[in-house]
Amino acid sequence: MKTRCVIIGAGHCGLAMSKYLSDYSIDHVVLERGEIANSWKHERWDSLRLLTPNWQTRLPGYAYSGDNPDGYMMVTELTGFIENYARTISAPVKQHTRVTSVTAQDGNYHVATTRGDWQCEALVIASGACNQAQIPAIAEYAPASVQMLTPGQYRNPAQLEDGGVLVVGASATGLQLAEEIHRSGRPVTLAVGEHVRLPRTYRGKDIQWWMDKLGIFDQRYDEIDDLSRGRNLPSPQLVGSATRESLDLNRLTATGITITGRLAGFNESSAQFSGSLGNVCALADLKMDRLLNSIDEWVTEHEFDNELDPPLRYLRTRIEDSPPLLMDLERNNIKTILWATGYRADYSWLQLPVFDRKGRIRHEGGVVDSHAVYLMGMPLLRRRKSSFIHGAEDDARELSAELLSRLNSNPESQTDKGAADGPVRPVHVAA
Prior knowledge:
With about 425 residues, the protein is of the alpha/beta class. The protein contains nine helices and 26 strands. The chain has a five-stranded parallel beta sheet, covered by helices on one side. The longest helix has 25 residues. The two termini are about 30 Å apart.
């Protein structure tokens, strides 16, 4: 089968690209290993809500239209939103079609799948940034008696063994799951490394509103001094809830959760923790205050002080004078370790010479180091908002325009879909 472009992945990013390619009348297909919004539907915990408010949930030509713009979608609501979008734009999605390999062939690309092969001129990789849990190597030294899970495997506390839980990682996922598990009656220890502390709301506005208003979300990848670090920053400590409450280490400590430093290793049945907890928390507090200072300066500059809540500063992160450096898991009845340590993409099927020494795809703002190959959905791909739902629109618009230009510059590289022979006419924007 032939088409001009293959999009791999029918999540929000792949569908956003599909919308623009359809607007340009570019023949394409969207290949999805499972169902539309598959990762959201089958690889998230039951109580998950988006970190972004509903008013920020939008895709090209489609946006949230309910009566709760300041609320936060449950994962079931989001999957319905994405499925409705696919129907609205009539996306040419082939579900349950797993890509097994992509290779270069005669100047085009050969895409092998479990339901037939495709030939295409252009390729869009929108298969997601969270395909595999990023579990540190020290996990292999954990006591065999301890159950180990990732957030992709976790659904709710009922699946856990009775006993204590060690949650490793203090970004949004780690904090949310630590609190949920603790509410189930299980003792929880949270191992904390580098993290980003943010209030849910500030001066009466959601922190996402401020990030948008200050232009932080629109900051481009080529404006970042340390792009590699920017792309690897942990997700902020936020939670979406009906009460719009903040979630931070102080709140967890107040409920009885034990806070330790970063998990450094295991020695038989004991877990070893870093002694840098104080410094890590102080740095997170400092960075939060810098952001709040920027917001206050913006408010004063635009003469909005009288229209908003007054400024405030939050209590420093409270930690013990001597946080535990060693914990015997058996003696403390720790039965489960939950690795909330991040994810990485899975490109095991991509057989093109486009990877750097760390196995990441080489690209410049989503334009991959291979002819007519594009990447979507990765952190800080083109802007700081690239990994959010609403960030797909601008990225897809710009990358689809670049793809259009590339196809028009090479009109004889492939035939029209279904045609056996003959050159393809240049693509033109639909009127």
